[in-house]
Predict the 3D structure of the following.
Amino acid sequence: MIENRPLLTIFSHIMLILGVVVIAFPIWIMFVAASHPEIRMTQVPLPMLPGGQFFENLDIALNRGMSGMDGNGVGYMMLNSLAMAMMIAVGKIAISLLSAFAIVYFRFPFRMFFFWMIFVTLMLPVEVRILPTYEVVANLGMLDSYWGLSIPLIASATATFMFRQVFLTIPDEMLEAARIDGAGPMRFFWDILIPMSRTNIAALFVILFIYGWNQYLWPLLITSEPEMFTVVMGIKQMLEAAEQAPQWNVIMMTALLAMLPPVCVVIFMQSLFVKGLTETEK
Amino acid sequence: MLKNVHFGPSVLPFLLVLPQIIVTLVFFIWPASQALYQSVLLEDAFGLKTEFVWFRNFEELLSDPLYWDSFKITIVFSFLVAFLSMSFALALAIFSDRVIKGSGAYRTLLIWPYAVAPVTAGALWVFMFNPTLGIVSYALSALGYEWNHQLNGGEAMALVVMASAWKQVAYNFLFFLAGLQSISKSLIEAAAIDGAGPMRRTIDIILPLLSPTTFFLLVINIVYAFFETFGVIHVVTAGGPAGATNILVYKVFSDGFVGLDLGGSAAQSVILMIIVISLTVVQFKYVEKRVAY
């Protein structure tokens, strides 16, 4: 701070608190709605303070589901989301580490060609090639499977670029020393490169976990069996059913459940999250 | 790009890039080329015969007023989202850069909506603005305004813009804050010695120095609004009412999967591809320059 202006500092705090309130307001409303009995959620005006049925709603959302639906709850959808998010995050990191290693540490024919091919994926988000990608996955028999949910999303130009940058900053002496000690390429990769890029891997994992967990269009296209649905799809499904009989307490509880894992990741691994976010955008 | 010291020739590097290349070829390049190919074909309703029609799908698309409406809606939508979330985030970042006590806590409280899925964000906002029950529409009707985004296109647009911008504030805030913190303190101090107050310093020094960050975020936000808000639209309005929020990505999905117009959907995909490619080029050209700034 340059000069001491107590009034301006107080004003800044007030504005920031207002900002936090605006940002948090929808979440507060969601939390309140998730803690009231169904009947209260049909009476206008809706409550602004939490009620006492939070854990009953949690049980309904996780295990029983909204009345009028299949009665399975969204517990298994949370597991599907978790499986998909983990497979996408781990898959992207694994194949990007390997290809960045090849591109930085080997001289081989078509090296730049491969590099540009990976780069092109940046320009082809799922949204622009919806139908043909669906056809490919259908022909490979990967509809309604974890493989179909994750593999088509794991090519990653940004992750490959990030690891390339990280590897380029690792001093050449590392490789020379490893070679003198008789280490082959894979030994060098496992015992030197991976440990040295550990924090970058963790930061990227945080970002990719959130990315994977929040996928919507792709699972919507390739899953038709309810047992493969992810939790964000569950919300949409409930909203559609809600047009006849709104059970906002259960819907908002599901939204809360869908939000919790990625939000916890951001809050508890904040420094890794910020690092991942800024590094992948370079 | 290549290390000075590297491993000798072998098949190993091919094996290492192989997984990524296979995924890229099978799920990215092949489908994209199929989209290109299908965009010049016309298929009958039963998929029995296809006919090569050159650019007729494109001609039809570009002479379709609904497509142009969707184009206009997308542009209005993405600029509103970018403007709203960036200005809100910039103001918060400037205040947050000023306070010393509690700035970490504010940051934590402001960044977590990044992790909320677009669908979840849409569900929250559609609940708050539900015409019969929603808490905000109740407050509005107490003020004498009847909110119904299911009937009013303008209100539907406002709702999807708010839901999408709300989610994006976190991202913009982090980058603006990083930009502010990288501005050299000596510049600010020099201006203060010359008698410039906080307002003047913000307008004449901080904002111009932030312009690279602002431009970068503008591109990112437009990409976000174009491609990542599908979930919000799908949950909140499903493109309606009467196509008032039918953005391009949503139209590709509904024409292709619901309407089963393969050629038309492929032509739309190709146009979207051109848009992504140009946005990516802009972004990369700019990133090169950002370092030299």
In short: The longest helix of chain B spans residues 65-98. The longest strand of chain B covers residues 41-43. The domain at 64-260 of chain B is CATH 1.10.3720.10 (MetI-like fold).
